[in-house]
Design goal:
Bound molecules: dihydroflavine-adenine dinucleotide
Distance between the termini: 28 Å
Low-confidence stretches: 225-229, 315-319
Number of strands: 8
Strand content: 5-15%
Shape: globular
Number of helices: 12
Strand order of the largest sheet: 1-2-3-4-5-6-7-8
Radius of gyration: 19 Å
Amino acid sequence: MFRSFFSYLAKAAWARKIVAKWSIAWKMASRFIAGETLADGIRVIKTLNAAGINATLDHLGENTDSPEKARQATQDIIQAFDAIEEAGVRANVSIKLTQIGLGISDELTLENLLQILNTARKYHSFVRIDMEDSPVTQRTINILYKAREAGYENVGIVIQAYLYRSEADIRKLLEDCFKVRLCKGAYTEPAKVAYPKMKDVDANYDRCAALLIDGSLARECPPLSPDGKTPPIPGLATHDARRIDFAKQYAAKVGLPNDAMEFQMLNGIRKDLQDGLVKEGYRVRVYVPYGTEWYPYFMRRIAERPADLLFLLPRFNFK
Ligand code: FDA
């Protein structure tokens, strides 16, 4: 119930107008968000890199409603690549297709995506397309394939374990040598497309993680760059210690070395787990969002764990 309520608030323009102005909201959001500027993102990445952790930088924004704003967002993302190169930090970039035009047209989205991929290619870097809610799942996958047809290998996608379709999507994506990040899924979805119960999402997460680990052992894919890695490295995005343990044990059983898989987490969540995995020799990548459009991202984090709001209670006077 709480999850649906906060997911609703994430999309509600009226709530955004009110909540985004509260200084307490920003204070809470800043646990997850590097700051409002690109320089803030780079600063956080430097700290992560120093702890042996790679990053994926995300210029916050979604559901852009005009071609001008979509083009501006594209330029902002391109600047993020320039800043990563200039700072010499270890980071790639994550993007959302609705930020660069999916709400307007597939053509505009592809045009903007190809510009981003071209910049990433210049720097031998990689772009991860985040997955948004189920009405755009197939269009997001279609655009990924169009980018490949246009000659770009430096792009991967996110698949959400809560969707019934995801196991089949992963099989096809692996067959076609795409890099996949697996997450549980952050949107509120109807039972006709997604498992309503967390125990089923968890079971599907483990099934899909095993598929990705098997896929990584079975394939050699075209390198990203002359010095790039060839197998499709499984990107396992979760803070759930049980899911992580399952993946570690399964990989050990089938013989995938620790450094051939990557655990991914969100900035501000389970730093203890991140550091522990680095010590054990796993690759770890942290998603670092920055920008002024932090409201929907923050609301999705609260939807996942409404208990985080409890710390506000002492600040209100109920007398
Ligand atoms: P789960 O929600 O079961 O949480 C496990 C534990 O993690 C909790 O017990 C708690 O300790 C901690 N935790 C989780 N969320 C927390 C929070 N908000 N605050 C504090 N602690 C928290 N989703 C999507 O739909 N599309 C996408 O493209 C992406 N991309 C993405 C990238 C990366 C790198 C990550 C880590 C996650 C995503 N997600 C996403 C979000 C993902 O779908 C999911 O909503 C969150 O990761 C939370 O799910 P967990 O797997 O962590 O499990």
